[in-house]
Structures are given as structure tokens and as C-alpha cells.
């Protein structure tokens, strides 16, 4: 391995350094950390011009082992979102011991083998990441339904003028029954079993097979409301 630096190196052409230098620029831009637990080194594998990211140099014995794993995971996600093909490695090859595994089975370095501009994912905000996680575990709407006013009553007419429902939650019972609640913003309103409109029950039945054990959520987009907003503007 050869650490990327301005010093003379045995690379035959600038292209030999291209991937490692790209990784190095990414790390310098996104992780200019200076603490021992967050420090890193980018290196180039002279055998195939792939790149590696290794924690260090430096070691802080007061830091728990999990701290390095947290930083390595941040680096991995960031590199992948930036279009790099990156994999965590638990072997000790980068340290000259290819037949050994890292103590505890934790990844000790990242192997970057390619970069593809078309694989770049737009940077996501913390809010975006939280929303993505919430949707995966069933805490955000998973489906969107466009309500046609000619086929369905406006949502607010179904539940009363005081409730303009924008989201519905369906919970399914082992006996085939279904519980429905509608939400206006973050406030939920349970709908009595005998008062669930037929069109809303139909939506719930359509989503039954996608449901998790916690039920399923559906965003209700009222086209009548959109038409009203369009007319007002």
C-alpha cells in the first residue's frame, strides 16, 4: 500500500492515482476531523490502483472500540452516496496479515474499488434521513391515494368540517376486521367501526397485503382541496 501524498510514488500514470485521490478529496471535504477516534488515512493499493480508508494514524486508548465503528460507518455511507463502490473489510490484509481477522469481527478498513458518477445520491438532510428511517419502520405514510371528488366525498365532508384528514392509518385484526384512524397533521381521530366510509374501507382493504404487523399508513390527497388552492392562487 502507498499512502497518497505529493511525494514521488511508483504510479506509472496519473490515472493510477485517480481513484485514491478522489477518495482522499471526498474524505478531506466531508470528514476534516482531528480527534484520534475520527482520524483516517487514505491509501492506494499498488496492485490494482484501488483505494483504502483506514482509521488513524494515531490511537486513543481511552476511546471505546465502538467509536471507531461509528466513524467507519459514517465514512462508508458517505462514500457510497458519493458514487463510490465501497465495502467494509474485517480481514487484516491492509495491515499485512491477510490470513487474520480483526479482533471482535469489526471492520477495520474500507476497500474502495470504483467510482460511478451515475450512482451519486443527493445529500440528505438529517430530517430526510429520519423520515426515510420512519417510513421503513412504518411510522410515516407508505402509500399515496389521489381522491377524485366525483367518486369520493371530500375528506373533510366525511369526517366533519373540523377534521381535514390528510393521512389514514389502517390496523388489521387476525379475524379479518380493520381499525381506522385519520390524522390531521399529527393529531389522530379514531373512526368508529360502523362509521368508516365505504371508499375509505376500500382503500384500507387494498393495502391489507402490504401491511406490517403494526398496520399501514396512507396519505390521502384530496384533489378537491388542490383545486381550491389552485383557484385561490
What profile does the largest beta sheet have? 5 strands, antiparallel
pLDDT < 50 runs, ≥5 residues: 1-9, 59-64
Helix content class: 25-40%
The secondary structure category is alpha+beta
- How much beta, percentage-wise? 25-35%
Physical arrangement of strands within the biggest beta sheet: 1-2-3-7-4
Put simply, the count of helices is 6
Record field, number of beta strands: 12
Structural shape: elongated
Cα(first) to Cα(last) distance is 63 Å
Order of helices and strands: EHEEHEEEEHEHEEEHEH
User: How many distinct folded domains?
Assistant: 2
Radius of gyration equals: 27 Å
> How confident overall, as mean pLDDT?
77
Reconstruct the topology from this structure.
Elements: E1 2-3, H1 14-30, E2 40-44, E3 51-55, H2 65-81, E4 84-89, E5 91-92, E6 97-101, E7 109-115, H3 126-136, E8 143-147, H4 155-159, E9 167-172, E10 178-184, E11 187-191, H5 198-206, E12 216-222, H6 223-232
Parallel strand pairs: 8-12
Antiparallel strand pairs: 1-2, 2-3, 3-7, 4-7, 5-6, 9-10, 9-12, 10-11
Features:
single chain, 233 residues, alpha+beta, five-stranded antiparallel sheet, 6 helices, disordered N terminus
Summarize the structure.
By secondary structure, this protein is α+β, with helices and mostly antiparallel strands.
What report would you give on this structure?
The structure is a single chain. The chain is an alpha+beta fold and 233 residues long. It has two domains: 15-95 and 106-137; 168-231, no CATH class. Helix content is 30%, strand content 27%. The chain has a five-stranded antiparallel sheet with strand order 1-2-3-7-4, covered by helices on one side. A five-stranded mixed sheet has the order 8-12-9-10-11. It has a two-stranded antiparallel sheet with strand order 5-6. A hairpin with a 4-residue loop joins β5 (91-92) and β6. The model is unreliable at 1-9 and 59-64 (pLDDT under 50).
Amino acid at each position: 500500500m502507498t499512502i497518497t501524498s505529493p511525494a514521488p510514488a511508483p504510479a506509472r500514470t496519473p490515472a493510477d492515482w485517480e481513484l485514491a485521490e478522489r477518495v482522499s478529496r471526498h474524505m478531506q471535504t466531508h470528514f476534516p476531523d482531528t480527534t484520534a477516534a475520527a482520524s483516517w488515512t487514505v491509501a492506494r493499493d499498488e496492485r490494482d490502483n484501488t483505494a483504502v480508508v483506514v482509521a488513524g494514524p494515531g490511537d486513543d486508548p481511552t476511546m471505546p472500540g465502538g467509536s471507531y465503528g461509528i466513524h467507519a460507518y459514517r465514512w462508508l455511507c458517505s462514500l457510497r452516496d458519493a458514487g463510490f463502490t465501497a465495502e467494509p473489510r474485517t480481514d487484516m490484509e491492509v495491515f499485512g496479515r491477510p490470513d487474520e481477522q480483526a479482533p471482535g469481527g469489526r471492520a477495520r478498513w474500507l476497500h474502495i474499488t470504483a467510482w460511478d458518477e451515475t450512482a451519486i445520491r443527493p445529500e440528505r438532510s438529517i430530517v430526510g434521513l429520519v423520515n426515510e428511517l420512519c417510513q421503513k419502520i412504518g411510522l410515516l405514510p407508505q402509500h399515496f391515494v389521489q381522491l377524485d371528488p366525483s367518486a369520493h366525498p371530500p375528506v373533510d365532508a366525511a369526517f366533519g368540517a373540523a377534521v381535514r384528514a390528510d393521512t389514514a392509518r389502517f390496523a388489521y385484526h387476525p379475524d379479518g376486521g380493520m381499525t381506522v384512524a385519520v390524522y390531521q397533521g399529527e393529531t389522530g381521530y379514531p373512526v368508529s367501526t360502523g362509521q368508516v366510509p365505504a371508499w375509505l374501507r376500500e382503500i384500507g382493504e387494498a393495502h391489507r397485503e402490504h401491511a406490517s404487523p403494526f398496520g399501514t399508513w396512507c396519505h390521502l390527497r384530496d384533489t378537491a382541496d388542490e383545486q381550491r388552492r389552485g383557484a385561490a392562487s
